[in-house]
Write a structure and sequence with these properties.
This protein is mostly helical and 67 residues long. The chain is built from one helix and no strands. 0% of the residues are buried.
Length: 67
Protein backbone atom coordinates (compact mmCIF):
# COMPACT_ATOMS: atom_id res chain seq x y z
CA UNK A 1 0.00 0.00 0.00
CA UNK A 2 2.84 2.38 0.86
CA UNK A 3 4.61 1.95 -2.48
CA UNK A 4 1.35 2.53 -4.38
CA UNK A 5 0.83 5.79 -2.52
CA UNK A 6 4.42 6.79 -3.19
CA UNK A 7 3.97 6.01 -6.87
CA UNK A 8 0.80 8.14 -7.02
CA UNK A 9 2.62 11.02 -5.33
CA UNK A 10 5.46 10.64 -7.83
CA UNK A 11 3.01 10.76 -10.75
CA UNK A 12 1.27 13.79 -9.27
CA UNK A 13 4.55 15.69 -8.92
CA UNK A 14 5.60 14.63 -12.40
CA UNK A 15 2.29 15.82 -13.88
CA UNK A 16 2.60 19.15 -12.03
CA UNK A 17 6.13 19.60 -13.38
CA UNK A 18 4.99 18.85 -16.94
CA UNK A 19 2.15 21.38 -16.63
CA UNK A 20 4.66 23.99 -15.46
CA UNK A 21 6.88 23.30 -18.47
CA UNK A 22 3.89 23.50 -20.80
CA UNK A 23 2.90 26.87 -19.31
CA UNK A 24 6.49 28.12 -19.66
CA UNK A 25 6.65 27.16 -23.35
CA UNK A 26 3.25 28.75 -23.98
CA UNK A 27 4.57 31.99 -22.48
CA UNK A 28 7.57 31.81 -24.82
CA UNK A 29 5.27 31.33 -27.82
CA UNK A 30 3.22 34.35 -26.80
CA UNK A 31 6.39 36.39 -26.35
CA UNK A 32 7.64 35.49 -29.83
CA UNK A 33 4.24 36.28 -31.36
CA UNK A 34 4.28 39.69 -29.68
CA UNK A 35 7.77 40.45 -31.01
CA UNK A 36 6.70 39.54 -34.54
CA UNK A 37 3.55 41.65 -34.21
CA UNK A 38 5.50 44.64 -32.87
CA UNK A 39 8.00 44.33 -35.73
CA UNK A 40 5.14 44.51 -38.22
CA UNK A 41 3.70 47.56 -36.48
CA UNK A 42 7.10 49.25 -36.49
CA UNK A 43 7.36 48.74 -40.26
CA UNK A 44 3.91 50.27 -40.74
CA UNK A 45 4.90 53.31 -38.66
CA UNK A 46 8.11 53.73 -40.66
CA UNK A 47 6.23 53.54 -43.96
CA UNK A 48 3.69 56.08 -42.69
CA UNK A 49 6.49 58.44 -41.63
CA UNK A 50 8.16 58.05 -45.02
CA UNK A 51 4.86 58.92 -46.73
CA UNK A 52 4.50 62.06 -44.60
CA UNK A 53 8.06 63.08 -45.42
CA UNK A 54 7.46 62.69 -49.15
CA UNK A 55 4.27 64.75 -48.86
CA UNK A 56 6.17 67.55 -47.14
CA UNK A 57 8.88 67.45 -49.81
CA UNK A 58 6.27 67.66 -52.59
CA UNK A 59 4.54 70.54 -50.81
CA UNK A 60 7.88 72.37 -50.58
CA UNK A 61 8.59 71.72 -54.28
CA UNK A 62 5.18 73.05 -55.35
CA UNK A 63 5.75 76.09 -53.14
CA UNK A 64 9.06 76.74 -54.93
CA UNK A 65 7.36 76.59 -58.34
CA UNK A 66 4.60 78.98 -57.28
CA UNK A 67 6.97 81.56 -55.77
Amino acid sequence: MGSALGFLLFLGRRWHCMQGLKLYFNRCDIGIDQVIEQTGLLRIHLLAALGKLQTLELRYLVGEFLD
